[in-house]
Design a protein that fits this description.
10 helices
């Protein structure tokens, strides 16, 4: 490939959530706020599973370069999980109980994937699919950061940092799978399943968070949320083309060459005072 892939740098960001004091912290819109809360609730258990699925194949990887990338991937995902746990606790205290959903998903992953003895191939393919979804969403967010105008500053910083590291390591699980299993048709099938599963889960989690917070959205809230998802720069409408590319023969995540967004984050969004230095890799 012609693109020079970036170094995967696990950064130990410690984002203060002091400014997160309002329950509906995204434009005072309950739908937008619980959408972000629902996403955040999935990250700690989801990323722990991503790490576990890659580790199942670690000893089969012969490339020293890919082994180094795996170490960076584990470091980044582990620290994302830690920071989202902190954010979820703050949200819970405000009345958006992301921790309750986080614990529920932990139990479900244990029951369905671990105790259910899901095949390693399926678990890694599921990780590849979810990494594709997060990578294209990350690209969209950093390309159009204004879509988060009105979001609490600390949550915005968390999401931008998470997004840039998702871009840096977006090909790791894919490369591990292709170097060991080599079945790209299987990846395409599992991505369809992952997309449906993720969409349903986020929708149900949003309903739960609204119900627990005893808040009924207004018609204005609904229209604003619809625009956020399906408007000109919507979170769904804006990623359709990149999503479909995964189904092209021979697709690789770095076919979406977007290393410029890493430099943009460093220039526009990086907060040095919140960086505790590079995280350890294992």
């Amino acid at each position: 490939m012609s693109v020079i892939t970036p170094e995967i740098q696990p950064r130990r960001m410690a984002i203060p959530f002091d400014s997160l004091t309002q329950r509906f912290f995204f434009l005072d819109n309950p739908l937008l706020s619980v959408f972000v809360g629902a996403l955040s609730s999935t990250f700690p258990p989801g990323e722990a599973e991503f790490i576990a699925s890659v580790r199942l194949y670690r000893d089969k990887v012969t490339s020293p370069e890919l082994q180094e990338q795996i170490r960076g991937f584990i470091g980044q995902e582990g620290h994302h999980s830690h920071q989202h746990k902190r954010a979820n606790e703050v949200l819970r205290d405000l009345g958006i109980d992301a921790v309750r959903l986080e614990k529920s998903l932990e139990r479900e992953i244990k029951r369905r994937l671990h105790e259910g003895k899901a095949k390693p191939k399926f678990r890694l393919a599921l990780t590849v699919g979810m990494e594709h979804l997060t990578a294209i969403l990350a690209e969209h967010v950093l390309t159009n950061p204004e879509i988060f105008d009105g979001l609490d500053d600390s949550v915005k910083e968390l999401l931008y940092w998470h997004a840039v590291e998702e871009i840096e390591h977006k090909a790791v699980a894919f490369d591990v799978f292709m170097s060991t299993e080599g079945d790209q048709a299987y990846l395409r099938r599992v991505l369809r399943f992952a997309t449906l599963m993720f969409s349903v889960r986020i929708s149900l989690y949003m309903v739960a968070l609204l119900w627990w917070s005893k808040k009924r959205p207004t018609w204005r809230d609904i229209k604003e949320f619809y625009k956020f998802l399906f408007g000109k720069k919507g979170m769904i409408s804006g990623v359709r083309s990149n999503y479909k590319d995964f189904f092209k023969a021979g697709f690789h995540p770095w076919d979406h060459e977007n290393t410029d967004l890493i430099e943009r984050w460093k220039k526009d969004f990086y907060r040095e005072e919140h960086d505790q230095g590079r995280a350890k890799t294992v």
